[in-house]
Amino acid sequence: MAEYTLHYFDVPGAAEPIRLAFAVSGIPFKDRRIPFAEFPAIKSEFPLGQVPVLELKDGTMITQGYAILRYVGSLNPSAGLYPQSDLMKRLRIDELMDMVKDTHVKLAATMKMDEEMKMKTRKALAEEEIPFVFGKLDEMIGDKKFATGDEMTIADLLLTNMMEVFTSGYIDGFPATLCDPYTNLQRVKSNLYADPRVVQWKEKREVGASS
């Protein structure tokens, strides 16, 4: 059994920052991609009946994507994704991540709404709340290469994923141009995707692959 198994669907979604954290840290893992149609039959395998879930070698299952991301980001200190010795930098990383989490919570709330209310709520998010948060994030990043400085952290993985979620077209109600005005966020995304470790991961990414 692999030391780490990440359980999620065969889409980027909430697991992609975690996958990238493994890849950037150079840590092998089993990337289990669950077909949506099969999930109802196996959801009882997971503590909360949902994914992502990180399974350790001894069978322990860890829930909650943000907790998993922080854990994986700490596994290889030399990668610098979630530095243990720089408390102020960790505080800034957590601050940015919690801002992203606020938008994800609001988006998730729309999933259970009827169609009319869902689209009305998403329109308000796209026109008011998300631009406000994106604008503040853009301002906080300033002219830095990455969100907190010259080195990539888990905050960058999460921010980039957030931008992809809202502009991918997978979720109705959000225009593909939503992130266009935020040049600092766009620069972080470009720098992340230019990193050789990320390039390598994206090239080899396939169902069930171990990186």
UniProtKB/TrEMBL annotation:
Origin superkingdom: Eukaryota
BP terms from Gene Ontology: glutathione metabolic process
InterPro entries referenced in this protein's UniProt entry, alphabetically: Glutathione-S-Trfase_C-like, Glutathione-S-Trfase_C_sf, Glutathione_S-Trfase, Glutathione_S-Trfase_N, GST_C, GST_superfamily, Thioredoxin-like_sf
UniProt cross-references to Pfam families, sorted A to Z: GST_C_3, GST_N
UniProt domain GST C-terminal: residue ranges: 86-210
A GO MF label: glutathione transferase activity
Keywords assigned by UniProt, alphabetized: Transferase
Start and end residues of each GST N-terminal domain: 2-80
The protein's name in its UniProt record: Glutathione S-transferase, putative
PANTHER family associated with the record: GLUTATHIONE S-TRANSFERASE (PTHR11571)
Keyword Cell membrane: no
Keyword match Transferase: yes
